[in-house]
Amino acid sequence: MSKIFKGRPVIAGTIDRIDAVVSRQGVNTLASFQKSALKKASEVICSDQNNPDLYKKNLTKKALCLPQTIGSTTGGMVLYSVCALGIAPSAMLFSQPIDSLAAAGVILSDVWTDGSIVAVDNLGEEFLNYVKDGMKISVAPDGTVTVD
Amino acid sequence: MKYNMNLTPDEEAILNGSKGEALAKVMKSLVLYGDAFNAQRFVPVTGKGHLVTSFGISVLKPVFSIMDELIAGGLKVDETFTVDPRPIDYDNVKCNPLEKLVFNKIIYGMQTPYEAQLQKLGLKSSKSFTCTCYLDEVGNTPKKGDILSWAESSAVVYANSVIGARCNRNSGIIELFGSILGKVPEFDLLTDEGRKATWIIEVKTTKKPEAQILGSAIGMKVMEEVPFIRGLDRFIGTELNGTAKAYLKDMGAATASNGAVGLYHVENLTPEAAELGTGLIRDGAKTYVIDDAELERIRSSYPKIGAWEKNPDAKPVRCFIGCPHLTFAQLDEWTGRFENELKKQGRKKVGMSVILSAAPEVLERFIRENKAAYDKLIGFGIKLTSICPLMYMNNPLCGKKPVITNSNKLRTYTTARYLTDDEIAAVAVKGGF
Predict the structure, then answer these.
(1) In contact, B323 and B390? CB cutoff 8 Å
(2) Sequence ranges of the domains in chain B
(3) Which of B15, B21, B148, B226 is at a distance of 20 to 30 A from B303, taking alpha carbons?
(4) Rounded distance, CA B163 to CA B330, Å?
(5) Over the stretch B50-93, which tens digit does the pLDDT of each residue have?
(6) Quick one: how far is CA B125 from the chain centroid?
(7) What's the ipTM?
(8) DSSP tag of B150
């Protein structure tokens, strides 16, 4: 059974049935991505011990579902960097309005790399309550998110 | 590209490449950034820049590619900029050979070429590495009402709250783009409405609260919202003197790191609160009462991680004081605090590696104008540096060490354990708990 949510596309794009990985708390970008990026790993394994929802989970090419990002103001640069390295999530789906650090990250990725991170915000609390790890996520350019 | 902001003909021309591809990409990034927050227009930046990225960390290699592209496009910050502290200082913050190898070859292997990039892009001077760029000695002090393009969270919250300048809590790189363009999208903390408080904080403690714990409590509660703080003027007065500013610097850094506060108002003290009073409070603002018990609850909630998780009574190997960097007056205060504690414990020198961190120009002034205090600190076995303790600590090697700090920001982002000012002096002199 599919459930559809409508948000605002910050970076518009099309995503077809990729796995969701879900954080109910704000995602600390630096803490989550730094360790894998430092190791020049081929994928990001979340290294934030303070986030039990994501810790040790693979974030690369996933649909990362979250309320907002938190933490250091290096966050935008870190997101941009993992996108440039080809190991970023394919999509970031925010239940709340996007925060300034995540916005910077997805915008820098869109403008300054060959890749991009599709970003949709304002999906609402119901979205974050509904979506679970491993559910299949599709995104349309108008910000429609389908959860299977 | 499609966009919603209202651009002037000049801005639109830049977006379409009239001043080169690199500046067009800078403009495109800032237009998308403005659109994300429903900004209607650009406003001119009226102060110098300040960048958060001071470290040539290998993980950010793609950032250095952007820098190269900007430099190749002939772009730079005309008004110059300062930048956060350097990550390493082997003379004053000793490292073992393995740490040096990891720092030099793996983590900070790009430091030297990155600093060359910063100079080409308009770095104010080779001394301009500090998170307290707004101190008089450093020479990047904005005026009230200035529009800024900064990122370092502790500097942004200080500039907004204590000085009354206007700056959003930007990410690294975006802040550089705003300084290069000389304009930023107008939203949130750049607007009168965005600067209104949605929280009232009632300070009802029986004594002056520890700045770092009060800031932590406020940050955890209000997150990115704007608090209006009542009752603090009973303890720190109604004059923005050096002592009050230093207190607000440390409290603000904790609000920004334990939450995401970009602006706070203190009744009868900070510029906008002194001018506008309760007119700064939005209808329907929520209230948070902070008393002695609440501060104790907050403090006891801090997890012990890293070496402290395995052994809460571990002997600390290092003590970091000065995150954010210390002021000239704070260096003097710490001299007195350590002098008293050494006398009390009947010792001549501190019992562990103690590092005080301050801006290069502040340290120069301290040595020049307060040589007696400087000599005392050196005699006590204390080292002075200008590094960023957070950048030093934020790696797997240093993260395993039992380190103590009086900084709630350092506690939040690393494995360092928080102690109050008085506690940390006692433990540092004794060499353990």
Answers:
(1) yes
(2) 9-190, 194-300, 307-430
(3) B226
(4) 19
(5) 999 998 887 788 999 999 999 999 999 999 999 999 999 999 99
(6) 19
(7) 0.96
(8) B
Q: Are B254 and B214 in contact (CB under 8 A)?
A: yes
Helices (H), B78-236: 97-101, 111-121, 153-158, 174-181, 211-222, 233-236
CATH of domain B307-430: 3.30.499.10
The CATH number that domain B9-190 falls under is 3.30.499
Contact status, residue B251 vs residue B229, Cβ threshold 8 Å: no
Residues of A in contact with B56 (CB under 8 A): none
Which domains does chain A carry?
Answer: 19-135 (3.50.30.10)
* Chain B CB contacts of A70 below 8 Å: 260
| Whether the predicted model's global pTM rises above the 0.80 cut | yes
Angle at B16 between CA B15 and CA B17, to 5 degrees: 95
User: C-alpha distances in angstroms, B52 versus A75, B96, B215, B246, B312?
Assistant: 11, 27, 21, 21, 33
Strands (E), A67-131: 69-70, 91-94, 118-121
Element (H, E) at B184: strand B183-185
CA torsion B162→B183→A97→A18, rounded to 10°?
-130
Domain B9-190 and domain B307-430, same fold? Reply is yes
What are the beta bridge partners of residue B321? B356
Q: Which of residues 67-96 of B touch A (CB under 8 A)?
A: 69
Please tell me if residue B409 touches chain A, with a CB cutoff of 8 Å. no
